[in-house]
Amino acid sequence: MTKRPLVYAAVCWTAGNAAAYLLIINRLLWVWAGITLLTAAVALLRRGQGVKLLIFLWFILTLGGAYFEWNDHRNTTALPAALGQSASGLEEAPVHMEGIVSSTVERDGDRVDFVMVIHDAALLSVEGAVNDEEDTGSTEAGSEEAGGAAAAAQGEKIAVQVKLQAEEEISEAAKWKRGDRVRVDGALELPATARNFDGFDYREYLRSRHIHWLLKASGTASVTVEAPAGFGFRSVLRWSDSVRSGIGGELERLFPARDAGYLKGLIIGMQDELDPDTYKQFSRLGLTHILAISGMHVAVYAGVLLYVLTRIRLTRETALTLTMLFLPVYVLLAGAGPSVIRAGLMSMIALYAARVGILKDGLHVLCLAGWLMLLWEPYYLLNVSFQLSFLVTAGLIVFVPLAAPLLARLPRRPGSAVAVTLTAQLVSFPLTIYYFNQFAMLSFAANFILVPFITFGVLPLGTASLLLSRLWPYLAEQIAWLVRLLNTATFAVVDGIGRYAGMTIWRSPSLIWIVVYYGLLYALLLMLKLAAEARKVPGYIAGETVPLEGDGHCDARDSSPSPAGIMGTAAVRRYRITAVLITAGLSLLLYWGYKPEMPSPEGEVSFLDVGQGDSILISAPGGVHILVDGGGTLSFGSKEEWRVRRSPYEVGAKTVVPLLRKRGVHHLDAVILTHGDQDHMGGLQAVLEEIPVNALLFNGTLAEHDNYTKLMSTAVQKGIRLYAVHQGMQWSPSGSEGTRLSFLWPKLGSAGEPVLPVVEEQNNSSVVFRLEMSGRSFLFTGDIEKAAETEVIAAQQSACIPAGTACAQTAAGQVDVLKAAHHGSKTSSSEAWLQYWKPSTAVISVGENNTYGHPGKEVLERYLAAGMDIFRTDEQGEVQIKVKDGSLSVRHKLISADTSP
């Protein structure tokens, strides 16, 4: 430990930061007290030089935790306190703000985004406006209050979103630059928080960037911009943005749109214009690190620059100094993300150490760079790019020397490439499944083939064509033509491997699981390395016998193994046995992380919050998963082309699929599409594309719109079995004892009707079914209205007439939970419907602040009059109902608001 004090100190600082983030203050203090007592006990028992180092590391750990806690405590908004209002009171308050643009200005379709640092703010909320012009005293007080608010809010960051109103405004917004002084009139809005368990929390994401409010403005007329006067650091950033923009424009001139977007990400880290389908293909194979500027890019450029400088006969010291001075410029041009900052810092430290002759340990350089970054911004610790960048780099430094002897039989260069690629895959694996919940079995092959190809082919040639575009246009065009061919080959390989990638879905593992994984991986590689080295001991016996040579007579001096060889043989055997045991432990750990949740006699129904729509996950005993509807993003009319965004929000891809992966749903035994309306079926397109599905159950009708046709075509192409369900059908999922679905609607079509009729109004054709699971019952109703409710009741009563009262009671069943039909619309949930089923609990899937008036006031009154417990996704987010020991337990993501009408 004394040989690497900086490494251990950096690890302790990071651990202190992580503990402060993960633990609430009370638990943090208890953990700190325990560590302090343990440190004191060790110090008393062991007296020596190591005690001083132990106390030093305890001090660093404590300081790291305190530093993060101090920064986190200060990371609050000043606006509510300055105005004397609650945060909710400021929601949608009209304001006028003045500040400085502190980020690049980005446009996607009809929306422009940038971050503004408040320089002056006069907050004019509707409630604070002065209506009586004669009340001069009130006016003066209001003015003083506004001035106090401006002073308190000085320096706070605001995320500004400007919705363009006309295509002509694009050119006006394009003039906005970082460093501009802006005045914005808009409305404040709190960022959205996570509304589903395991869902993405946009509010926390922005908070980690010291942003607490959104300021939404309409049109460029609401924004006034002035260029800065004088020269300062922001002028350097403006220059960087201009150069990046110019590079992007030059790449667009040289290459077609798809190639230009790809090369922007590859050369200068601009991923905003990368084709979404291309990014998706790279992501599936774990290749997105190629598109983010990282150590690979910095190493290539630094190496090329050093080579050029030495070739023009500059001294070694001068070449190192010039390269070191060039790196900050490249970091700025590459976007200054966490990975490129890490790579730039490491390279600068390494170059300086090499210049003064003290470069000895790459791990020291890495830890120093990480420590400096965390001192500058503790929230870097929460950044996925930061975590992957440092972890993979540390893994390469630590694990490659362990893995290299195992590949000694391969030629040197291929062996080194295999060692680096394999190590990077093994080290990044836990974080990959933690954040992305998927891993491609062919990821190693894709990285092994494409990373060298892109790094030493596409990247330098693309850069060369860019640099020569103004100096030697003809040569630049020829190189660009070659790069286009290489890109075509790259996309073809990515697409080909992606089709057979062997995608696996993983639950997000716990922190303990990740730590154990790295411990076992290190121990396994160490044992294999020791075994490989022990085989090289002179006199090592490879088998049970020693082959005889010459005339067959054995010379004891030649055939007898040396003592060192005997010891080497025993060591190899010992290391191999240990490696086998560690491999078994690692295999069990991987199985534990991959397998679905243990089958249990309980079940759970999760009503996901997908806005104005339905999506319900049924997790039945035995590991059976059924998805009912998938939500869908509603759109009204066709948008003008300039308004269309590159990667618009789609609830299936952005919400439903990530939640299924987070929960380790490897496959869906069935998807039930209740009917063809967009808010129920739209999100299922992404589900069918990304999650294996055994069967698709639908209402036996067709809807006359493109999205429905595409969904059905996807199901056919993927070999998903299609079942048109109707009244009277039942299904008991295999492997889930006691689980049964009884379909109550729609009724079977009459003779002479088309097999799959086209139905424009789908609500009353919705699939209605009753789920019996673990002794409890749930009724799912789609969007049926009162007319269909009446027919369902009549059919149930008619079916029970021959069997008498017992059948009627079974049919009505007094269901425990009712999924409110049509989002609680007044067109559904009739008095007769509720009296027939007698549910004790109702769940309403409905969008927050929807424009339809859902749920209806009269519906809520009927529910309350019937004594039902009401849960609403618009107020409580995701609602989970678990069957445990024959009773129902309910939890929801958000704190409940008053559900009374």
Topology, please?
Elements: H1 5-22, H2 25-45, H3 49-74, H4 79-83, H5 87-90, E1 94-101, E2 106-108, E3 111-122, H6 136-152, E4 157-163, H7 169-173, E5 181-189, H8 202-207, E6 211-218, E7 223-226, H9 233-254, H10 257-268, H11 276-284, H12 295-311, H13 316-333, H14 338-356, H15 362-376, H16 384-403, H17 412-436, E8 438-440, H18 443-468, H19 473-499, E9 503-505, H20 511-534, H21 556-559, H22 563-594, E10 603-607, E11 616-620, E12 624-628, H23 651-662, E13 670-672, H24 678-681, H25 684-690, E14 695-698, H26 706-717, E15 721-724, E16 730-731, E17 740-745, E18 768-773, E19 776-780, H27 786-800, H28 805-812, E20 817-819, H29 831-837, E21 841-844, H30 857-865, E22 869-872, H31 873-876, E23 879-884, E24 887-892
Parallel strand pairs: 4-6, 12-13, 13-14, 14-15, 19-20, 20-21, 21-22
Antiparallel strand pairs: 1-3, 1-5, 2-3, 3-4, 5-6, 5-7, 8-9, 10-11, 10-23, 11-12, 16-17, 17-18, 18-19, 23-24
Helix pairs in contact: 1-3, 1-15, 2-3, 9-10, 11-19, 12-13, 12-14, 13-14, 14-15, 14-16, 15-16, 16-17, 17-18, 17-20, 18-19, 20-22, 23-25, 25-26, 27-28
